[in-house]
Specification:
single chain; about 140 residues; alpha+beta; four-stranded mixed β-sheet; about 45% helix
């Protein structure tokens, strides 16, 4: 178990926490747990466990049975826009850990947070539009 969160997790958690606060919720992070699950927090006095999944171009390619080119050349990468396939793979990989997350956090529910670095997916048109909306919230 990691003793601290990754920078990507910190970024995602900070953004979601800020957004929930803007909506009028009381959010309090429990810093003693930083892995399995990645984030434990109180939302309006209800304990929630949250697991983060960092989406990268490499993961999208892997899920679509493509290999990431590592030959030092510039390549155009085409990724099918089929989020139902991505989501199924992510949910299946995390579902078997839900009871562990609940027990570790003494939580009543578990959230799955999908996040990325805007630089990673900003060149994909549908992602670019979603990022523009997210960054203007």
């Amino acid at each position: 178990m990691r003793k601290s969160r990754t920078l990507a997790e910190e970024f995602a958690i900070s953004n979601l926490s800020g957004f929930l606060t803007k909506l009028g919720h009381k959010v309090k992070t429990k810093d003693e747990i930083t892995d399995n699950p990645d984030w434990v927090f109180s939302l309006d006095n209800k304990t929630i466990a949250a697991e983060c999944t960092y989406l990268t171009v490499e993961k999208f390619m892997q899920w679509n049975n493509q290999e990431f080119p590592i030959d030092g050349k510039t390549h155009e990468i085409v990724i099918p826009v089929e989020p139902h396939i991505w989501m199924e793979k992510i949910i299946r990989s995390k579902a078997k850990k839900i009871q562990q997350y609940k027990a570790n956090a003494d939580a009543s529910e578990v959230w799955l947070i999908l996040h990325t670095d805007p630089i990673d997916l900003g060149s994909i048109p549908i992602m670019r539009e979603q990022l523009k909306r997210k960054l203007t919230i």
